Amino acid sequence: MKKRSFFEHIASAPYVFWASLFIVGPLLVVLYFAFTNQEGKFTFENILSLSSYSHTFIMSLGFALIATVICLLIGYPLAYCMSRMSERARNILTVLLMLPMWISLLIRTYSLMALLDNGGLVSSFLTSLGFEKLTFIGTEGAVILGMIYDFLPYMVLPIFTSMNKLDVRYLEAAADLGCNNRKTLWRVILPLTMPGVISGVTMVFVPSISTFYISQKLGGGVFDLLGDTIERQFQNAVTYHTGAAISLVMMVLILISLAIMNKFSDSGEDIIV
To answer: Residues 85, 90, 96, CA angle at the centre, nearest 5°?
Structure first.
């Protein structure tokens, strides 16, 4: 094995310092608080006490799964259509998808609140059409819609990248073997674009399960998700340890989900025609 030069060690030093300060350091702090009590003594009590938050875990997981599935159902056909467009139309749509990502999540959430509020544009428009006054803020649908609105680009762009790199010779071979469009989609395009799907699912699921601002503003404070619980625990110095324990369990769940999705990604690379 070739030894790294002195210059390579020096060049990697800033990254090592950054990773130690902003990745390893916070993780060690979370681990410390998760397994200690207020006196600094080692304990499993913080982890064992999380059974009282089982409803929060289930609700957060449910919201994140629903938002991820809907983003996939919307994002995959959109990415497929984008890959079949002309270069000019594709570039315009890509910019439109990336434009919300350049705006703060806080501003985007507030703009959606203005649309869905009881006196907002959507409610006023439906009322003018003769519908009864509808309440959107404070409902499950508003929270899930907020997740979809904020995280949909993270689903579309990785899938579009995979489709854009797709070798057309595979499609031509499938057509020569008698596959129709539906079979080509399921047996060729979908397996070959599975890495993009896995990346998109990961990039939507992870922030959805840990979000707190969307649920606070669009949920009207009704839904106490994991992000809300962790924020509230860390705002109180007495409950640092419980918040750290919840954060640790959530990190473990995310790592498990990433491992499962990577397993599916590896197994989905085979093509069956």
So the answer is: 140
How many of the other CB atoms lie within 10 Å of CB of 10?
A: 9
Other CB atoms within 10 A of residue 12 CB: 12
The Cβ-side half-sphere exposure at 247, using a 13 Å CA radius, reads 22
What are 36's strand-pairing partners?
42
The SS3 assignment for 6 reads helix
Q: Quickly count: other Cβ atoms within 10 Å of residue 151's Cβ.
A: 25
Assign 4 to helix, strand or coil: coil
Residue 72 has pLDDT above 80, yes or no: yes
- Give the C-alpha separation, 109 to 218, whole Å: 8
Contact of 185 with 171, CB cutoff 8 Å: no
Backbone angles phi, psi at 42, to 5 degrees: -65, 135
pLDDT tens for 165-223 read 887 788 778 877 777 878 888 888 888 898 899 989 989 998 998 888 888 888 887 88
pLDDT confidence tier of residue 49, bands split at 50, 70 and 90: confident
Rounded to an integer, what distance in angstroms lies between the CA atom of residue 173 and that of residue 272? 12
Q: What angle do CA 175, 181, 184 make, to 5 degrees?
A: 65
Q: Which residues contact 213 (CB under 8 A, 6 or more apart)?
A: 105, 106, 109, 227
Class of domain 54-267: mainly alpha
Chain segment 92-103, per-residue pLDDT in tens: 998 888 888 888
Can you tell me the distance from the alpha carbon of 208 to that of 162, in angstroms, rounded to the nearest whole number? 23
Q: How many Cβ atoms sit within 10 Å of the Cβ of residue 240?
A: 20
Mean pLDDT of 130-159: 88
Range among 32-46, 117-131, 145-159, 256-270 rated most confident:
145-159
Name the nearest CA neighbour of 222 among 58, 56, 46: 56
